[in-house]
Design brief:
Length: 450
């Protein structure tokens, strides 16, 4: 796997250091290390898929499906050598065999030629205790889309077992800095599968790249680049690979974030002398100034309904998270009070909770907070935890951290019980961003007569 690594400085420091950002090295991702999972993991048997001889490439779909479920920390996958039978269709499933082995779910599949010349996976998910077929679906793609088919299968199994939509078919975006300490230093904005595979470079520059964020439809991304020697905000179309510079005012141009409907972009500009929150109408390019304060206001983020904007400000003396009305710009409330440093907020999809960077005893952690009642908890216990980004199903979040002085990406469940990390032989971390749900590149259909 390629690395997902890079590192984000402390939020307020970003604004102060934009003229000379510090970049960190990143290299190759070796493996996923699961640090913690649920005490009682769901036991699932994924029977080896039967492959039709006419399918040219017997791609490791099952291995990817198993890996997706295992790295979620919620599943214990039965080894094939322990199975009492190897069914490939519903009529061959004997619930007694799986009850003896203590399994809760059984997944059966067969890979066959697709209608369009590619390949298809006929997938069957069974509830062992209830002795019933939960779903039977065909997932079809071209010959090069076997990985997409596997991730989609993992999404289906995950949802059938947990009731929560899977997010394995999503993407991760991050900044990668290479050749540091030399005249050939480069920054790359890269996108990968949720497991780190199939890396694609969106933009490469000899200058820093910062603050990348996804549009709600996943077609565009916005980011800050110093290609011209000064900060500027760009919108990059991932389909056409074209980009447009939308803000390069004197001073700071930073922290672009799309509104939930994709019609607006919140950002930080200092064109009037002080870092303030602005909102740009993406159709007209008209700007509206949202904050009026002598303090540093930065890191805007929208509530899921688009009615509020949370942001980081030191207006109270130290960085805390505040909120304003996105329609009027009227100050709403201060959202954080626990500790002397809270920043980089992101709302959970339900709009009732948020996660952010929290400092405790001089160490940065990722914290979770309810917005409707007095409920707060720290999710991570490593050092220098930064840049949290929530999966679209709200079940997991990815963040940047350090272990033994080494920068990595780590993932934690919102209840703090499941944790895994993506270590690298050497390198640091920078700004991971989890994509929204994306339009499927493979087709699915229900099998009417399984």
């Amino acid at each position: 796997m390629r690395s997902l690594l890079g590192r984000l400085p402390a939020p307020i420091a970003v604004l102060l250091l934009l003229a000379a950002p510090v970049l960190h090295a990143a290299e190759t991702l070796d493996t996923v290390i699961i640090d913690a999972g649920y005490d009682k993991q769901t036991r699932v048997a994924i029977v080896p898929f039967r492959v039709d001889p006419q399918v040219r490439a017997q791609a490791p779909m099952q291995a990817i499906l198993e890996f997706d479920l295992q790295r979620s920390g919620q599943f214990e996958v039965l080894e094939a050598s322990s199975m009492l039978s190897l069914p490939s269709k519903p009529s061959e499933v004997l619930y007694r065999d799986w009850k003896i082995l203590g399994q809760e779910f059984v997944v059966v599949g067969n890979i066959v030629p697709g209608n369009s010349g590619g390949q298809a996976l006929n997938l069957y998910v069974f509830d062992v205790l209830a002795e019933r077929l939960l779903t039977a679906q065909t997932i079809e793609g071209s010959s090069g889309q076997w990985r997409d088919i596997a991730h989609k299968a993992a999404d289906i199994v995950f949802e059938q077992a947990t009731g929560i939509p899977g997010a394995f078919s999503t993407r991760l975006m991050y900044v990668l800095a290479k050749n540091l300490g030399s005249s050939g230093v480069t920054s790359k904005l890269e996108i990968s599968d949720s497991d780190g595979e199939r890396v694609r470079t969106v933009h490469e520059s000899s200058e820093p790249i910062l603050s990348a964020s996804w549009s709600p439809n996943g077609r565009e991304v916005a980011y800050v680049s110093f290609d011209t020697g000064r900060s500027a905000i760009y919108i990059h179309d991932l389909i056409t690979n074209s980009r447009e510079k939308i803000a390069e005012f004197p001073g700071i141009n930073s922290a672009p974030r799309y509104s939930p409907d994709g019609s607006k972009l919140a950002m930080v500009l200092s064109k009037d002398g002080n870092p303030e929150i602005y909102v740009m109408d993406l159709k007209t390019r008209a700007l509206s100034r949202m904050t009026q304060n002598r303090a540093i206001d930065t890191e805007p983020t929208w509530s899921p309904n688009g009615q509020k904007i949370a942001f980081t400000s030191d207006r109270g003396g130290k960085p805390q998270i505040y909120q304003l009305d996105a329609r009027t710009g009227i100050f709403d409330s201060r959202l954080t009070n626990e500790g002397d440093y809270n920043a980089r907020a992101q709302h959970m999809p339900d709009g009732k909770h948020m996660i952010y960077v929290h400092r405790k005893r001089g160490v940065f952690h990722i914290a979770w907070q309810s917005l409707v009642k007095n409920d707060f908890r720290i999710l991570t216990q490593t050092s220098l935890d930064e840049s949290p980004s929530v999966a679209p199903n709200g079940a997991m979040l990815i963040y940047a951290t350090q272990i033994d002085g080494q920068g990595i990406l780590a993932v934690v469940s919102v209840d703090g019980r499941v944790k895994y990390r993506l270590p690298s032989s050497e390198g640091d971390v920078r700004e991971p961003a989890w994509s929204p749900y994306l339009s499927s590149v493979v087709s699915t259909s229900v099998i009417s007569n399984p």
